[in-house]
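Example 3.2
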Amino acid sequence: MPEIVTIETPSLGDRSYLICDGEDAVVIDPQRDIGRVLAAAQSRHVRISHVLETHIHYDYVTGGLALARHTGAEYVVAASEDVDFERLGVRDGDQIVAGSMALTVIHTPGHTPGHLSFALSPAGLGPCAVFTGGSMLYGAVGRTDLTGPENTEQLTRAQYRSVRRLAAELPDDVAVYPTHGFGSFCSATPTAGTSSTIGSERRVNMALRSDEDAFVKELMAGLSAYPRYYVHMGPANRRGPLAAELAPPAQADPAELRRRIDAGEWIVDLRERTAFARGHVAGTISIEIGSSFSTYLGWTMPWGAPLTLIGDSPEQVTEAQVQLIRIGIDRLAAAATGPTETLAGDGRISSYPVSDFGGLAARWGQPGLVVLDVRRLDEWRAGHLSGAVHIPFWEIERRAGELPAGHVWVYCASGFRAAIAASLLDRAGRRVVHVDDAWEKAAQAGLPLAGAPDS
């Protein structure tokens, strides 16, 4: 049986796959940093003969074309897609043969109009696995609104039929390998688990437990906001992105940092968010390095704006660069590392308090208290603090002037997005408190809730 190697990208909630038969290999949906795929193939002494895309991706810049050119592999993309590069265009029912493996093309529109799935069959045997991209996910399906609201209902109905087709045509023991669904905003609803089969999906998948109209209503009602940078990924992938060079950024001294801050550029501090709150170069923005870094930076920052990173070390900056090239941010304006006291050459260091929902409860009702919820609209509607102002975190920079006068306490669901918002408000000259706490603790602290079904 072929070996299927999963290459995870937790920062974007996606998976890529390397499928090997001992000599030949096929790659499904590779990320931009193709070195991980090349290392996996090299360690198994296999030749990559084909690179397959399930669809034109909206949540990352693909590494497919770069990988195909580097290895001499065939680059396989749906024939229906309008792209600016040479590829092997395939259609429903086509078969790709690589060594002893065959992959059958199944047109599964829904996540995108040209979406494909690939059913893997070892030599002389029936299918053993299916690579479903953004079609059938674990208990869910890929979102259907990425190509525009005018197409959403049509694609939602197509998604329903595509998932049902996979379930009808493939045996129960076929393993399901989606690209999305591990935290990606390309999933229409939350997914469950890290592995599944067609048989398991028959029991739990939202498209296989209701009729079409009910499915359409449920899915469309659950579509929430997705990262703003997505709008740039489809065009980039249609152009045919090449590999990005991970070049060391120019180093900014304290005077250069201050010049860029005063010019209104984005200077992002990668340090842990509570350390940032204790002391940071005035005018910088907190986006803590970690699994959510690239998603939330790409969501918040004006696209194309000059970006400078501040880190504890060059290695931390490099880690951030790797995440950023996956969403098409290939060049930094500059970078700086070292203690805040050193980087703030003019002594302009800012700080603000960090608290929790208990701390907010102790000050509830005091004059001048402004409570700001920076979560998505669907989260707000599901329940929020009574009397809170709602501005999603990615709109804070533009809408900070809408906040009432007073001392702003900022919360989200975990503290991560609240840290971004608090730093933006601090940069704008507002007095802020960063509520670094889990949303579930708000009720435990006795704070009044509004909007929730049981409130």
